[in-house]
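Today's session is about reading a structure prediction critically. Students often jump straight to the picture, but the first step is always the sequence itself: look for stretches that repeat, for charged clusters, for runs of hydrophobic residues. Only then move on to the predicted structure, which in these notes is written as discrete structure tokens rather than atom positions. Here is the chain we will use throughout the hour.
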Amino acid sequence: MLCEADAKLVQRDALLPGLGTLLDGDDPGSDGTITIQGIGSSWTNTQNVFVGNFGTGDVAILDGASASSATTKIGDEIRAVGSALVDGPGSTWESSVDLIVGNHGSGTMTVSNGGLALAANGFIGDDPGSLGNVTITGAASSWACTNQLTVGRLGEGHLTVADGATATAPFVTINDLSSLNGDGTIQADVANAGTVAPGLSVGQLAIQGSYIQNSLGTLHTDMDSTGNDQLAVTGVAQLAGTLQLSFINGFNPAAGQEFVILTADSVLGTFDNVTGPVGLEVIYSAGAVTVVSTASSTPPNDFNAFRGFLDSGTLDDVLASDNVDLCHDLGITIFPSEAPITLDFDGTLPTDSPSSLSVTFESSANTPGLELTISFWNYNANSWEVVGTAAQGFNLDVVRTFVGNPADHVEAGTGNVRTRYEVRHVSIIFQFPWTDCIDHVFWSTT
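Below is the predicted structure for this chain, in token form.
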């Protein structure tokens, strides 16, 4: 169904006479589409709308059009799939009672480019087994609820508020299996028992209200060379649960580098658990939470290739995460028993008695079916000691491996350290010759 150019459609008894209910994608296997488009075009439902009742339903409200209903359910019953798009300045969908994205089934809603969704109550992932995904994106785009907005009431829900968009309610609740992320603004008091992840890469998520994270909640924060995620709270931040820290894009901070990951009018409590890279200290102050790098990183000063043909690159190409690689191949290999590409990297640490020691490799290959083995030279035993293995494939992988006893693997009096990097094929490969490339290598100590 398409309504455009000042069209007005009023529904009461569509499809189910006397119930005032419109079913878009009513029966199993059915597929329904409704588009309301253009300034002045409207779709008025005096009672309820189900977008994907048992089948698949799609609704688009575009370019200044409007729609209204009592309760709206997107992805209503089990195995139903529903989607809604509210796009363009002035485009509006108003639900006077509930707007539910993922009731028993799977539902998605996107509000973009100045669109507006209005409801008394908003639910994403309402009942057990449901899945709801809502994206509010673009300046002036908003979802406003007069009573509450719940992400994952009994099901799984995910809310993204991005690029200057807002979500507004007296309070927003994020429950287990559910998440809130983005770099927009939440105009509400927020209670987190799921996951809050500011930014879409790194960025700031603003909460104009209080933030309470209980023992089940997680705050996820990414850090890279351009900055870090930050949760900016205008009210009180009450902390518990988990702080999950992550370096992305091959980032390795300098010792002493600081990251303000949360600001608030006042900070109460602390996180119960902190997960992520070693060498990070969490500092709590009256109005902020700051992460400080206490680790020292050391690049290699030499390397030797004991097996493998150099395709491209030099030592300088592994000193930074810049997609300029040191690449080797083995020529044609037939059997996994053949000797692997073998590179030894040497460096000198700032101390010969670190309390922790790890090595990080950013590397990739041109085929799956490969295995990476990392070993440290044991200066006390005068032998190599395997400390980790990992699958090697197409994607750029970051592998950080720790040694159990740093004193065995750092030369006394010099701080010298040596790490061996080996790649062999262990299953079916699709490129001959296969090639392995290293973008960045460094040791970390505390």
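Discussion point for the tutorial: The longest strand covers residues 435-445.
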